[in-house]
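Might I ask for a little of your time on a matter of protein folding? Here, with my thanks, is the record as I have it:
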Amino acid sequence: MSAEAPAIAGAVETVLFGTRVLGWARCQPGDQPVQLELLLDGQPQAAAWNRIARPDVGGDVGFALTCPRPIQPSDWLLGRVALRGLAEGVAPHTLPLAPPLLESARQGWVAQLVALGAGEFDALMQGLAGHPRFAAWVLEHPEARALPERARVAAVLAQLPGAPAAGTRAEVGWVLAPVGHQSLEGTAVLGRGGHVFVVGGPNRPLDQSLRDPASPRVQQEAAAWAAVLAGRARHCAERGIGFLQILLPEKQSVLPEYLPTAWPTPIALWRALEQQVAAAPKVAAAVLDTLPLLRGMAEQGEVPFLTLDSHLTPAAALRVFDAVLARMGLAPPFSGAFEREQVMQGDLALRLFGVALPEAFQAPGAALQAMLPEPEMVVNDTTGRHVQARFVWRNPAAPLAAKVVCFGNSFFWDGGLPQNLSFWFARAFREFHFCWSPDFEPDYVAEHQPDWVLCQTIERFLTKVPVR
């Protein structure tokens, strides 16, 4: 009996904002690597390998790739777009749309047709009447026969199924949303390229951007911040402790070209504080402004922020970590490529659409991962809260012997992912403390006697000047 010939299987499961395509593919038997190639009108547009962990389908067989131009649902349904799987010694295979995504594409196309003007609609229907895939689509979905009659199209839309019932698996399908789409509460907005930005909420970064940096109130707030920073640096210097304040910008200040419409970045208070810090050399020596670093990454084609999230990519987190070490007079102990894709759910997608959406990102490759000594978390004090959470790591194998205490926010967090700054600090230092707090806490510093104290905040939080 002859051995079974290897073949490629898989499916396209998700299309985000018309450009990001995710799914899975594997070659069986044999498990050869599969390269996925996205074709538009027969021309290659993007490629990726099946290397993302997908335990739900049995291994590291997931993929994610980005098409340089938006793809419409009709492009898939009419066969203009195809995703081809390629493996050595195996016949190429075009991956189908998973059934939930196929239905989502159909609904998305019907919605697009309804939005067309009468003339555009009739012209499109005439042009597609002889298209073989369009004819097959009409036959497969009898209700589509009513498409030329616009009133009946609306009736079809009204009958389409809604969200999954409680307790069922939530399938994520096609997401088509206009640039400028805002969340219901006004917290997040969709920009170009699928980037989601924080614009509202308690700190109102958009409103803060539109203030005048020269106004007396903004200048007073900047002066108050400068005084706090000077006080922190002085307190530590008097005790022989190193001090550094890390300022992290908002995503829109680093990637303003992706905003739905232009507005001033960074916020007015950041711009005023920059001037006051520059005029006070002792304060400037204790402040790390990471905006030039992150902007420089973007200008060089690197990705500093996650698309559906308000936080840094792992590569940007390592660059910020290296910049902090440079200000501490220390050489960076880790280097290597980010070449292994992982998937997470972005914090801003939930705000914008009410559901979490997956996003693939580049994690440390095997060579870089091998350089990272695993720390022991000896304190994990959260009690169900973020602010005032506290984590402490000890790491006898760490390359840097110092003890470091940090007061910051979610950009450090619990160190579980490489986009958390704590991930890198806990692996580099023999002892590292992270306290989620906007304030400098002198009693904690006195109790633990660190070699260095770091404080960190982000642009939109500048509007609340800490007590100390």
Summary: Residues 147-173 have pLDDT under 50 and may be disordered. The chain is about 30% helix and 25% strand. The two ends are 78 Å apart (CA to CA).
